[in-house]
Amino acid sequence: MAAPIATAHTGTSLRVSLWRGRAEGCYQEFAVPRRENQTVLDAVTYVQRELDPTLSYRFSCRVGVCGSCAMTVNGRPRWTCRTLVAKVIEDGRIEIGPLANLPVIKDLATDMAHFFARWQEARGVFVATATRAEPLAGIRPDSAGRIAADQAIECINCGICWSACDTVRWNDDYLGPAALNRAWTLVNDARDGGGAERLTAITAKGGCQACHTHQSCEQHCPKGLNPTASIAGLKRHAMRAFIRGDLG
Amino acid sequence: MSFRRYLIQRITAVLMAPLIVAHLALILWTSGQGLTAADILSRTRGSLGWGLFYGGFVALAAVHGAIGVRGVAREWSGLRDAALDALMWGFGAVLLGLGLRAVWAVIA
């Protein structure tokens, strides 16, 4: 089995405490060789490949693109592939658990079906208003809609904002920061034709108005996005629609 | 929270803001003038203007507070919608009743 990490040993070891089980379970500690430039995902991968192959976790790209390796590291949701051990280690130890606010399938792997279902419920799907036979829509880079969408468009669906959000924890109906952030990009997409249905979706029970503006999503987003600002944009958008009489 | 309740809560907040500023300014001004309770009551008693000012304030606060309490209870208690609505209307009615009673005491 290939060693997962090519960087040099530092000669010390790291205590890695990993969640084992499902909703019920406990943390299990492993000693992992400390390496230079070691990421949290490197440490988890070492445990799975060298110490306990029954450990379940999820990753894919290892370079911060796919959004699949998010876990709770020392109490905070993080993308583990881009989080250096040196940045989060406390007293030679790291505690790694599954993302909060999601059912645990096993160990560090969560069931994200509910999280992604919210994207559908928020009408986070682009609705085309033209066919491919028609000319490309001209969207000026300096148009207000394009600029607003640009600030929210790099989401990698990692679920960190969902895990960090207090409102998600309190309110089962809440669509969540990521789905609403996606809806905001489409509200600002001049090519999209799903505005009326989306407006209904984002103002239904658990819609944008449920956000408390705690900004945990903005604080934890590994891509530096600000879903709270997107949700505030949706609130303004819905308010204007209400004043125009477009909101039933 | 429904979007309608959200809007009503925001609108009542906007309407209350200048009333709160006026109320606080009034407290500071009367303190500075050394007015006694009797002096103040002599000005408020029989005054339709002060009745409308504080009556409106109380009505807005009752609506705003009741919606807010419903939201807090929704997230912290796990109550269902019917119970939450009962709590909201009940809390709002109590606030309105107590507030209007206080207003009546200074204008009647």
Account of the 3D structure:
The complex is a heterodimer of chains A (248) and B (108). Chain A has 248 residues and is an alpha+beta fold. Chain A folds into two domains: 9-110, Roll (Ubiquitin-like (UB roll)); 113-244, Fumarate Reductase Iron-sulfur Protein, Chain B, domain 2 (Orthogonal Bundle), CATH 1.10.1060. Chain A is 34% helix and 17% strand. Chain A is built from ten helices and seven strands. In chain A, the strands form two sheets. Chain A has a five-stranded mixed sheet with strand order 2-1-5-3-4. Chain A has a two-stranded antiparallel sheet with strand order 6-7. In chain A, a hairpin with a 2-residue loop joins strand 3 (70-73) and strand 4. In chain A, helix 3 runs parallel beside helix 7, helix 4 (144-150) runs antiparallel to helix 7 and helix 7 packs across helix 10 (227-244). The relative contact order of chain A is 0.12. Chain B is built from four helices and no strands. Chain B has helices spanning 3-33, 37-44, 48-76, 81-107. The A-B interface holds A 167, 170-171, 203-205, 207, 209-210, 235, 238-239, 242, 247 and B 1-3, 6-7, 10, 74-76.
CATH architect. name of chain B: Up-down Bundle
Round the mean pLDDT of chain A to the nearest integer and report it. 94
End-to-end distance of chain B, in Å? 38 Å
- Unreliable stretches of chain A: 1-6
Gyration radius over CA of chain A: 21 Å
The CATH architecture category of the largest domain in chain A equals Orthogonal Bundle
Structural class by sheet pairing and helices of chain B: mainly alpha
Largest interface: A-B, 14 and 9 residues
| Biggest β-sheet description of chain A | 5 strands, mixed
